[in-house]
Amino acid sequence: MSRTSRRHLLRGGLAGLGGLTVAARLADRYGLLPPDSGGLYGAGHSFTYAAQRLLVGDSLAREFPRQKISASPFSTKGRPNSPEFERLARNGFAEWRVAVGGLVARPLSLSLADLRSYAAQSQITQLTCEEGWSFIAEWTGAPLAEVLRAAGILPQARYVVYSSAEQYWDDSIDLAEALHPQTLLTYGMNGGDLSLDHGGPVRLRVPRQLAYKSVKFVNRLTVTDTLQGHPAGGSYAWYAGI
Ligand SMILES: Nc1nc2c(c(=O)[nH]1)N[C@H]1C(S)=C(S)[C@@H](COP(=O)(O)O)O[C@H]1N2
Ligand SMILES: [Mo]
């Protein structure tokens, strides 16, 4: 969609028509329906997703100057509670792998060294929890877009589902978010290795959405054409744009 027709749709359509159900119908027509749009809050949620996808487009999450990096970043401090994780940790995560599969031409199994072999990208962005707290940090990693390019995503791909070594829901993002230049498979924070507190060895950083989409201890990515069978977000909204 061109910029003008986007604006036209926004002014004449979503904004002008008002009713959320109408917005949801429009969103559906333009392929802007989030996959969890059914149910009680469906129409309102659809409106948020559609409005943000139209307004935000490919825009960047805000980046901060180095002085703004938080001195003591808060952590929820959860850990994968498994002997296997402890074994991998004792080994300095030399055997950690991020599996990349699903609708790809070449499934991958990436070690930390493999991830570091992609051109590293750094960003100073804010991690914002839905509960109201946040911190700013420098995150370093491989752009997810580059990893997906290496794996060769198939034409019917629409989502990337990602899994944690921790007991956490499999979350997912659409391809626009997955290919966005600020979406990173991070292994570094504030100049050092990503600590266990912040989801090391590997965390998917999705800086345009709330912190719960930035899943810690990521060990599997699955490219799909549907989210059927991939419940995401628990009771949280699937699309968490900020
Ligand atoms: N694996 C995993 N990832 C997770 C969570 C979690 O409990 N487990 N919590 C999410 C939520 S709600 C928040 S606010 C942030 C907390 O990140 P932090 O511990 O680095 O501050 O991680 C997100 N990613
Ligand atoms: Mo959170």
Describe this entry's structure for a reader.
With 242 residues, the protein is an alpha+beta fold. 27% of the residues lie in helices and 22% in strands. The chain is built from seven helices and ten strands. It has a five-stranded mixed β-sheet with strand order 2-1-10-5-6. Strands 3, 4, 7, 8 and 9 form a five-stranded antiparallel β-sheet that branches. Helix 1 runs antiparallel to helix 3 (42-56) and helix 2 (20-29) crosses helix 3. The longest helix has 15 residues, at 3-17. The chain is globular. Molybdenum atom (MO) is lined by residues 129-131, 211-212.
Shape: globular
Helix content: 25-40%
Q: How much β-strand is present in the residues?
A: 15-25%
Mean pLDDT: 87
Amino- and carboxy-terminal Cα gap: 22 Å
Classify the secondary structure makeup into a structural class.
alpha+beta
H/E series: HHHHEEHEEHEEHEEEE
Sheet with the most strands?
Answer: 5 strands, mixed
Number of strands: 10
Low-confidence stretches: 1-17
Helix segment tally:
7
Q: Which compounds are bound in this model?
A: the ligand Nc1nc2c(c(=O)[nH]1)N[C@H]1C(S)=C(S)[C@@H](COP(=O)(O)O)O[C@H]1N2, molybdenum atom
User: How are the strands ordered across the major sheet?
Assistant: 2-1-10-5-6
Radius of gyration: 18 Å
